[in-house]
Amino acid sequence: MLNYIWGFMIVISIVVSLFTGKVEETAAGAAEGAAAAIESCISLLGIMCLWTGLAKIGEKAGLIRVFAKILRPITRLLFPRLDPNGKAVNSIVMNMVANLFGMGNAATPLGIKALGELNRLNGGRHTASDEMCMFVVVNTASIQLLPTTLISMRQAWGSASPGEVIVPVWIVSILAVCAGVTVAKLFERRRRL
Amino acid sequence: MRYISVFAVPVFILLFVAAGLVKGVGVYDCFAEGAKEGVRSMLGIIAPLVGLMVAINMFRASGALELISSALSPVLSFIGLPTEVLPLALLRPVSGSASLALVTDIFQTVGPDSPSGRIASVMMGSTETTFYTVAVYFGSVGIKNTRHTLPSALTADLTAILLSSAAVRIFLS
Q1: Mapping DSSP to helix (H, G, I), strand (E, B) and coil, where does residue A126 land?
Q2: Across chain B, what does the average pLDDT equal?
Q3: Which of B94, B124, B155 sits opposite A179 (nearest CB)?
Q4: What is the pLDDT of residue A13?
Q5: Residue A111: which of A124, A130, A97, A126 has the closest Cα?
Q6: How far apart are the CA of A85 and the nearest CA of chain B, in angstroms?
Q7: How confident is residue B69, by pLDDT bands cut at 50, 70 and 90?
Q8: Dihedral (C-alpha) A114, A120, A121, A124: value to the nearest 10 degrees?
Q9: What are B103-128's pLDDT values in tens digits?
Q10: What is the pLDDT of residue B68?
Q11: Chain B contacts of A157, Cβ < 8 Å?
Q12: pLDDT above 90: residue A34
């Protein structure tokens, strides 16, 4: 999909530039874009390493396990038909906590494990169960306590207050998850009726 | 509200390092190991970012972005979205590296503290690369029929996109 988007963007740019008379600017834009990409990577690199380093400490310290207890009640709401002490719920909770703490490297394998458990409960069919859909929906909305990449980027581009967006991000992502979960629940109900 | 935002970063760092010390983790070694992973993932993103920033810059310099934006501006002003963030709203669910490039572009041209910079920040922070996530997770267990996953997940994305400008207006002005 990105192949088409990227290709069309370039072709359209050049065609449009012929009409707007901005051929020179467009060519310069290509070079500027390439330079800007490298600049931003370099200024981001240090701050990114800071966060991935911290995330690793949290991972090794077993923070995921500690916070998993707090999240359990939420899983009962989202997955009422799963055994609350079963393997599936356990992996789901661990994946959610890893996402919350921005441990992307730990979250994905945990999520794949959780989905494997759900797949086993589903009898290994090629059609997703309600629980699998719900799990992936919650993951695509990923609530993060500290949006580290974002804060790093704001810092790199000289924001006076890189962290000022944290609270609005929390509120918007919670509302977005609620919307996604509500739609998923409505679909589930419609199917069972 | 401001206080929570200001203290979130130091509290987060304290929590992680203190937890590491309590559990007897070699915090410094561990940090270095994690930082190395950061370098590796950053290396992976350089080349795609160059490609995407080239395309975005050309698109803007040629006037094509302006053309699309002015065509859509009645809709955008209705939902309170500045035209600069339109490409981000469209590409966010499709590609993580493309949205990273678009946010970089917005920060570079209008600054992270401008209204558009803030709206782009909230949008970026509150959504995920939906199509990629769905593909990775369902691909891992061989699910072909994803049923209502995409409509539900895209509803969440749309909600975040529509609310991000309102959130900036309410909390950051």
Answers
A1: coil
A2: 91
A3: B155
A4: 95
A5: A97
A6: 22
A7: confident
A8: 120
A9: 999 999 999 999 999 999 999 999 98
A10: 87
A11: 104, 107-108, 111-112
A12: yes
Domain of residue A41, residue span: 2-192
- Which chain B residues contact residue A131 at CB under 8 A? none
Q: Are A81 and A33 in contact (CB under 8 A)?
A: no
Helix (H, G, I), strand (E, B) or coil at B145: strand
pLDDT reported for residue A40: 85
Burial level of B77, CB count in 10 A (0-12/13-18/19+)?
Answer: exposed
Q: Please name the residue that has the structure tokens 């919307």.
A: A179
Among chain A residues, the shortest Cα distance to B93 is held by A140
Q: How confident is the model over A37-51, as a mean pLDDT?
A: 87
Where do the structural domains in chain B lie, given as residue ranges? 50-171
**Best of A19, A136, A148, A171 to mutate (most B CBs within 10 Å, chain B):** A136
Q: Which amino acid is at A121?
A: L
pLDDT at residue A193 in the model:
63
Task: Report how many domains make up chain A.
Answer: 1
Q: What is the mean pLDDT of residues B78-90?
A: 89
